[in-house]
Specification:
456 residues, mainly alpha, 2 domains, 20 helices, flat, transmembrane helix, cell membrane, Maltose/maltodextrin transport system permease protein, transport, transmembrane
Length: 456
């Protein structure tokens, strides 16, 4: 037990050294309590004012958003109520309380306000650490050299060495509030009971920890649905990516062949499916493959359930996606193939290579190394290809063994149904986390093994 305690103490001391330095001076100690106090002691008034104003803004926000509230007892004096920051933290951890009267706490709103407060306090902590480090380091440098930079010289140095960070700081703050905060809200929703049976503001929601994750593992319905939908999503993403890639490569090779005439006309015709909005094309195909009144069945004189049979629906989905995605890869491959150095082919022919050997041992490896990052991005896009599935099949046909999902549903359309149609927000958040882990892990691994990543 002593060993564990000693190791913990050493780690804590190591973190302290990295943050504030090996020795804490009086200036550093002063900055712990009042931001800018250490800088003032170091005779850097401009810098001290900046740090102090940051702390003052936070204190004023808390004071100005507080209000006087009466105590519970008749003779109890009025006291200050919660301000913006204390109320935000209270709302995040409690998610509201049941109170009488007309107005009720809204748990999702309290969670959002709490996340905003946590992010803002994180910014404050960031500046607080910088403030202590700066005061401490300047004091140590002054003890050694007897000289100290003025605030003007310091700001000039920061502007010259960290110009990119200074300019992008407002954008980073907006990024935190506009992009990171919704992601965090979706993440934390997975740890609540936010569903159709706990629907604010009529009801409060509560923290349930990892209970929702256990449902996916333990309950047969959720487990079967997740495994089935996840496997089909992976199969769909792989097939949709590689069929469009090789289809585009084949068309590019055919069109670029020296025997083909009017290349521009052929390229224009073949790129039309990509030029037309995908949603329009998918809705047209949905009517085209309709079992009852679709033109295809009427021409064939048959009643084929293209979109109502699980196997046929998946095959149709892949075929339509092929038609929509091939033009993009065809134009991409065309651009790369025309930029190849012709001397490579001449050298291969001199060595006695035939056409097939030149393609598979020269053209294809170079082509693959150049398009691999785009291929990974295409895989990620197909993994979350909401439009193709939603507008063509809407996840149909229905699968009675699944929870809120059909045979052709992929994870993203399943999430949409759970939120839009069934209000299962907590389970949808879990699936979002699992998608992030799955697609993030696969994409990261692939990117790290591409030649473009290694060269960079």
């Amino acid at each position: 037990m002593k060993t564990d305690t000693n190791n913990l103490d050493k780690k804590s001391y190591s973190i302290w050294q990295k943050l504030f330095g090996k020795r804490m001076t009086k200036s550093g100690m002063l900055s712990i309590f009042i931001m800018g106090a250490g800088q003032l002691r170091n005779k850097q008034k401009g810098k001290a004012l900046c740090f102090f104003l940051i702390q003052l803004v936070y204190v004023l926000i808390e004071i100005l958003t507080s209000s006087l509230v009466s105590g519970g007892l008749p003779n109890q004096p009025k006291a200050w109520g919660y301000g913006f920051f204390r109320k935000g933290l209270w709302g995040f951890f409690t998610l509201g309380e049941t109170t009488g009267g007309r107005f009720r706490d809204n748990s999702p709103v309290l969670m959002i306000e709490g996340l905003i407060v946590i992010l803002l306090l994180g910014i404050l902590i960031f500046f607080w650490i910088i403030n202590i480090r700066d005061a401490n380091q300047i004091a140590i440098e002054y003890e050694k050299s007897g000289q100290i930079k003025s605030s003007k010289e310091y700001f000039k140095h920061v502007f010259e060495t960290s110009f990119a960070y200074v300019v992008s700081a407002p954008s980073l703050v907006l990024l935190l509030l506009i992009s990171i905060m919704p992601i965090l809200f979706a993440f934390f929703t997975a740890f609540t009971n936010y569903d159709a049976y706990h629907n604010p503001p009529a009801d409060l929601i509560d923290w349930v920890g990892f209970g929702n994750f256990m449902k996916v593992i333990q309950l047969p319905g959720w487990r079967t649905t997740f495994i089935g939908v996840a496997v089909w999503t992976l199969v769909w993403a792989v097939i949709a990516t590689f069929t469009t890639f090789f289809g585009g490569l084949f068309l590019a090779l055919v069109v670029n062949n020296h025997r083909v005439r009017f290349k521009k006309i052929w390229r224009t015709i073949l790129i039309l499916p990509w030029a037309i909005p995908g949603m329009v094309s998918l809705l047209v195909f949905k009517n085209f493959f309709n079992q009852t009144y679709g033109p295809l069945n009427r021409m064939l004189g048959m009643n084929i359930p293209w979109l109502n049979n699980p196997t046929l629906a998946k095959f149709t989905l892949i075929a339509v996606n092929f038609w929509l995605g091939v033009p993009y890869f065809m134009m991409l491959m065309t651009g790369i193939l025309t930029s190849f150095d012709k001397t490579i082919y001449e050298a291969a022919r001199v060595d006695g290579a035939n056409k097939n050997q030149i393609f598979w041992h020269v053209t294809f490896p170079i082509l693959l190394s150049q398009v691999m990052p785009l291929l990974i991005m295409s895989f990620a896009g197909n993994f979350n290809n909401f439009g193709a599935v939603f507008f063509l099949t809407n996840g149909s046909p229905r699968n009675i063994a699944y929870e809120y999902a059909g045979h052709t549903d992929i994870l993203i359309t399943w999430i949409y149904k759970m939120t839009k149609d069934f209000k299962m927000y907590n389970m949808a958040s879990i699936m979002s986390i699992l998608i992030f882990l799955l697609i993030g892990g696969i994409s990261t691994w692939n990117f790290m093994h591409t030649d473009a990543f290694k060269e960079d």
